[in-house]
Amino acid sequence: QRNEVSAIIQAGRAAPVDEENEIKELLAKRKYIVLQGAPGTGKTRMAKKIVEGQGEVFFTQFHAETSYSEFVYGIVPDVYANELKYIEREGVFVKAIKAALNCEENKQKVFLIIDEINRANLSNVLGPAFYLLEPTMSGSNTKIEICPGLSLDKLPGNLYIIATMNTADRSLAIVDFALRRRFAWFTLYPHVITVESGKVFCNKEFIDIATIFENYATDEELNLQPGHAYFIVSSENPDEEIKTKLKYEIMPLIKEYLNDGMLSRAKDDFVNYFRETIGEEMYR
Questions:
Q1: How do residues 176-226 score in pLDDT, each as one tens digit?
Q2: Angle of CA points 119, 89, 180, to nearest 5°
Q3: Bridge pairing between strands 55-61 and 232-234
Q4: Which residues fall within 8 angstroms of residue 168, CB to CB, at 6 or more apart?
Q5: Within 10 A of 265 (CB to CB), how many other CB atoms are there?
Q6: CA atoms of 168 and 223, how far apart (whole Å)
Q7: How is residue 81 annotated by DSSP?
Q8: CA–CA distance, 23 with 39 (Å, rounded to integer)
Q9: What is the pLDDT of residue 1?
Q10: Which residue of 13, 171, 207, 209 has the smallest Cβ count within 10 Å?
């Protein structure tokens, strides 16, 4: 049974992965998508890659203090005025909407990339704009005021939203079911990749770590596997560089998982692996 499982895993690794085209097709159909995956699976890089040269791009990164006034629209003090004075501030969401409206006739695409979308309190950040995030909405008699002078019953047809979400981050805000329904969700998995000139992908080390996860991780714990980006090094001194990454990036990450009570069945294998590979003890 173990041999059969191993054979299936090996066949899956050898299968070609064309994530980029699949995501492009999904984005064209659904317009609002979330790229989710473990650390190092290239979510943000992929988001930027699929919109490159396609139209105007707006980028923002959510955090715990992100608010409606920062993302959509707000009033802030004018710090340069000689007296107390307030000025309006358009958030990146309003800027993206206005850019899309300005070029809607010629159908030029506008993209809004939201990095780490689930790090913020989404209900507070989106406010009434939440209603408009409906890919099948064809317009209605109900208009939502986004900011003074801008009321919409639907988002522009040429506006596309790509968000990213780290599935291994345990400090995340909960993404409710209503928001999940409004986005299409695409999972990026760790896999063997071909790298550009001047870089080396450390296939052996990647397979070693992946094998431990495949042998011991639960379905939920598989979302913690370090992505392929961890195993990309320069071609000048790849052996030393991957040892440095294993010692200072991958081993601390695995240790944090273990300390949080995850991957407990794989503890001995991880301890032995780092001891034999880089001569380091996970626990002293």
A1: 677 788 899 999 999 888 888 899 999 999 999 999 999 999 888 888 999
A2: 30
A3: unpaired
A4: 38, 39, 223, 224
A5: 13
A6: 6
A7: S
A8: 19
A9: 64
A10: 171
Residue type (1 letter), 126: L
Give the pLDDT of residue 16. 55
Tokens linked to 81: 């005025």
**Contact status, residue 195 vs residue 207, Cβ threshold 8 Å:** no
**What are 256's two structure tokens?**
């944090």
Amino acid at the residue 261? G
Average pLDDT, the chain: 87
Q: Backbone dihedral region of 261: left (phi > 0), alpha (psi from -120 to 50 degrees) or beta?
A: left
pLDDT beneath 50: ranges in the chain: 173
Q: Which of 101, 72, 99 is nearest to 88 (CA)?
A: 72
Angle at 19 between CA 16 and CA 23, to 5 degrees: 150
Chain mean position to CA 30: 17
Note the pLDDT of residue 104: 84
Kindly report the backbone phi and psi dihedral angles of residue 80, in degrees, each rounded to the nearest multiple of 5, phi listed first: -100, -5
Question: Given the structure tokens 């047809």, which residue do they identify?
Answer: 157
Would you state the torsion angle of the CA atoms of residues 189, 53, 132, 71, taken in this order, to the nearest 10 degrees? 90
∠130-132-134 over CA atoms, to 5°? 100
- Rounded Cα distance, 51 and 48, in Å: 6
Residues 223 and 254: beta-carbon distance below 8 Å: no
Cα separation, 83 vs 247, in Å, equals 55
Contact predicate 135/182, CB 8 Å = yes
Tell me what pLDDT residue 245 has.
96
